[in-house]
Design a protein that fits this description.
Helices cover about 50% and strands about 10% of the residues. By secondary structure, it is an alpha/beta fold. The chain folds into 3 domains: about 100 residues, ADP-ribosylation fold; about 80 residues, no CATH class; about 140 residues, Leucine-rich Repeat Variant, CATH 1.25.10. Strand 4 and strand 5 form a beta hairpin. The longest helix is centred in the first third of the chain and has 15 residues. The radius of gyration is 24 Å and the shape is elongated. It starts with a strand and ends in a 5-residue tail after the last helix.
Length: about 350
């Protein structure tokens, strides 16, 4: 099955070199490209980078058998893996990604059918020089003018022993620029023991949460998410996404409430729940969208404040104090004339 992982260009280069490393507890994949791209854009804004998406195929049953119980959490379209995973670039790659020694060496070896032990090393002076030249072009904004001929000439200049053996002409080099900012890779299961992914100062609540969120009892799953919120884990929003397709309405509602309290989030996984017939789910979804859809928050506020269900209007009105009263006067007016006194009360509160 095809999965996606959203990240930034600089992090993508690190992933090619070191593999996926479960920082903050897990490595996240989703079958929803829009969600992965949304996640990548959020990271890019925070790090002032470029959003990219890794595309790969994962067999969940095979992964579970290989990693063992407790290393894999699956809910609907999202999986979280508590293990390091190495990657292999596929033949069709990109100038932007090849501008680092590890990725460039891996690409050349793949073209020649070589492996790490008998191919070119990432530390080869020619690899380092070619990657440095490419990276400088990317940073200077002239990367879109690196054509196949130029790349091939530099390769033959600094790595003649390898580029002379590449069995095709520069015009046929399978190197492209990003297509939809998506990079195709093959995920390889680690074959060397890794250090425990748990922090040496692991919060006992985090350990407890990992047990609870996989429990058959929905009350335990709710408690697990609450424990995770208390630990302040950076990936709290993603753990909530993992539970949006839970069979228990209580778990879904709890996940949406916590998502609304997260400082950062992505709207793609929340959107379907804004149409839910269940007013509790709809309330959580509209509030979360009002909080995290920075480009269209006003639409979600208005929709929530005009919902026929009082609990939906209250959930969204609770966020009114985060808005500028003058800029969003129309929204405050809608809430001010609401028949529910709780909704009215939020129009008088200030941050």
């Amino acid at each position: 099955m095809v999965f996606y992982h959203g990240t930034t260009l600089s992090s993508a280069r690190g992933i090619i070199e070191n593999g996926f490393r479960p920082r903050g507890g897990a490595v996240w994949f989703t079958t929803n490209w829009n969600y992965a791209k949304n996640r990548a854009e959020q990271k890019a804004r925070r790090k002032h980078g470029r959003p990219v998406v890794f595309k790969t195929e994962l067999e969940v049953a095979e992964l579970r058998a290989y990693l063992g119980n407790g290393k894999l959490h699956v809910h609907g379209s999202v999986i979280a893996i508590h293990e390091r995973l190495s990657v292999q670039l596929l033949q069709s790659n990109f100038f932007e990604l090849l501008a680092c020694p590890a990725a460039l060496a891996q690409w050349i070896n793949s073209q020649l059918g070589l492996y790490t032990h008998n191919g070119v090393s990432r530390n080869h002076w020619g690899i380092v020089r070619l990657a440095h030249w490419m990276d400088n072009r990317m940073r200077s904004g002239t990367g879109n003018r690196i054509d196949r001929q130029e790349f091939f000439q530099k390769g033959r200049q600094w790595l003649p022993a390898f580029f002379d053996k590449i069995p095709f002409s520069p015009e046929g080099l399978p190197i492209q620029h990003f297509q939809n900012d998506t990079i195709a890779v093959r995920v390889l299961y680690t074959d060397t023991p890794e250090e425990s992914t748990e922090s040496p100062k692991a919060d006992t609540r985090y350990i407890k949460a990992m047990t609870d969120i996989s429990d058959e009892n929905p009350k335990r799953r709710v408690r697990g998410l609450q424990f995770l919120e208390k630990t302040g884990t950076e990936e709290l929003f993603d753990w909530c996404v993992l539970h949006l397709e839970d069979e228990s309405v209580d778990v879904v509602c709890n996940a949406l409430r916590i998502m609304t309290r997260c400082d950062e989030g992505y709207i793609a996984p929340i959107l379907p729940y804004a149409e839910s017939a269940d007013k509790r789910i709809r309330a959580g979804a509209l509030a979360a969208l009002a909080k995290h859809d920075l480009d269209d928050a006003e639409r979600w506020f208005e929709r929530g404040l005009k919902d026929p269900a009082a609990c939906v209007r209250m959930a969204v009105a609770k966020l009114l104090p985060t808005l500028n009263r003058i800029e969003y006067q129309d929204l405050f007016d809608i809430a001010r004339y609401d028949p529910n006194p709780v909704v009215k009360r939020y129009t008088k509160k200030r941050q």
